[in-house]
Design goal:
Helix content: 25-40%
Bound molecules: manganese (II) ion
CATH class: Alpha Beta
Strand content: 15-25%
Strand order of the largest sheet: 2-1-3-8-7-4-5-6
Mean pLDDT: 97
CATH architecture: 3-Layer(aba) Sandwich
Number of strands: 8
Number of domains: 1
Shape: globular
Distance between the termini: 14 Å
CATH superfamily: Ureohydrolase domain
Radius of gyration: 16 Å
Length: about 270
C-alpha cells in the first residue's frame, strides 16, 4: 500500500517543560500498549493492518533536552524510514524539528492544537511547551506554519502569528472537510488537547469547545493530497486519563498519522 515499508516510532518521555502538570513523560509506552491492546485490532479504516508497518523503538533517555532529542531523532531518521515521535509535552517538537529540518530544508508544518504554543517565552522558560513554535519559526526550521483548532490565542500570541506569517484556522472556523494547502514536505504536530476534553480527558489542559474524535479523524483523512513525511503525537497525560480511554484515542490517532505518511502524495 505504500511508498515506505516501515515507520519507526520513538518515545520522547519528557514533561519538564509543561507549565501546569507532569505526566506526559509516561505516555509513549502506554500509547504503544494501547495500539496493541487485545480490546481492539491494529487495522486502519481502509482495511489495512498497520502492525507490519510500525516498529516501536522504545523511549530515549533525555538528560540534555535539546541535544538528546535532536540526536535521538536524527539517529532514527538516518535509518532511512520516516518517524513518528510519541511525546512527551509539546516542547519536544522543537528539537524534533531541528532533526527533521536537516533532512528536509523546505519543510512546512501542520500544527493541530487547542493552543498556538507561540509564546516568546512562558513564565521565563524559553523551552516551555507553550513556546515550541516560536523557537521553530525564529530558527527558520519551517517555511510555513499552519495551525488548526486553536481556541486560546492571547493578544501576544496573535501578534506572534503575524510576526511569523502563521496561517491559523481557529476552532470557530474549523471544518473537517477543509483541505490544507501546503507545498513540499509536511510535518504534522498533533497535540491531543485539540480534542474536546469530553473525548480526551487524559490531557493536562482542558479547553472545552474542541473537536470530536471523528471530526479530527475525518480532517486527517482529508489531507492525503499533502506530502506528509513525519509527525509527532504529544500531550497525552496518563495521570488524567479515565480507564485508558485517551490512550485508545491516541492509538487511533497514531494509526491515522501512520496511514497518512504511508499513503500521502510525494
Ligand atoms: Mn501544544
Ligand atoms: Mn495544547
Amino acid at each position: 500500500m505504500s511508498r515506505f515499508r516501515q515507520i519507526n516510532l520513538l518515545g520522547l518521555p519528557y514533561d519538564q517543560n509543561g507549565s501546569y502538570l507532569r505526566g506526559p513523560a509516561l505516555a509513549p509506552d502506554l500509547i504503544w500498549q494501547a495500539f496493541n491492546s487485545p480490546s481492539a485490532n491494529t487495522y486502519n479504516e481502509q482495511f489495512e493492518d498497520l502492525a507490519s508497518f510500525l516498529s516501536y523503538d522504545g523511549s530515549i533517555t533525555i538528560e540534555n533536552f535539546e541535544k538528546d532529542i535532536r540526536d535521538g531523532i536524527k539517529k532514527t531518521l538516518n535509518r532511512g524510514q520516516p518517524l513518528i515521535s510519541l511525546g512527551g509535552d509539546h516542547s519536544v517538537t522543537y528539537p524534533t524539528l531541528l532533526a527533521h529540518a536537516t533532512k528536509y530544508p523546505e519543510l512546512s508544518i501542520l500544527h493541530i492544537d487547542a493552543h498556538p504554543d507561540l509564546y516568546e517565552d512562558f513564565e521565563g522558560n524559553h523551552y516551555s511547551h507553550a513556546s515550541p513554535f516560536a523557537r521553530i519559526m525564529e530558527a527558520q526550521l519551517a517555511q510555513k506554519l499552519v495551525q488548526v483548532g486553536i481556541r486560546t490565542a492571547t493578544r501576544h500570541q496573535h501578534e506572534q502569528m503575524k510576526r511569523y506569517d502563521v496561517e491559523c484556522i481557529f476552532m470557530n472556523q474549523f471544518q473537517a472537510t477543509q483541505k490544507i494547502e501546503l507545498k513540499g514536505p509536511v510535518f504534522i504536530s498533533l497535540d491531543i488537547d485539540v480534542l474536546d476534553p469530553a473525548f480526551a480527558p487524559g490531557v493536562s489542559h482542558y479547553e472545552p469547545g474542541g473537536m470530536s474524535t471523528r471530526q479530527l479523524i475525518n480532517f486527517l483523512q482529508n489531507q492525503g493530497h499533502l506530502n506528509i513525511i513525519g509527525a509527532d503525537l504529544v500531550e497525552y497525560n496518563p495521570t488524567r486519563d479515565v480507564n485508558g480511554a485517551t490512550a485508545m484515542v491516541a492509538a487511533k490517532l497514531l494509526k491515522e498519522l501512520a496511514t497518512l505518511i504511508l499513503k500521502s502524495n510525494e
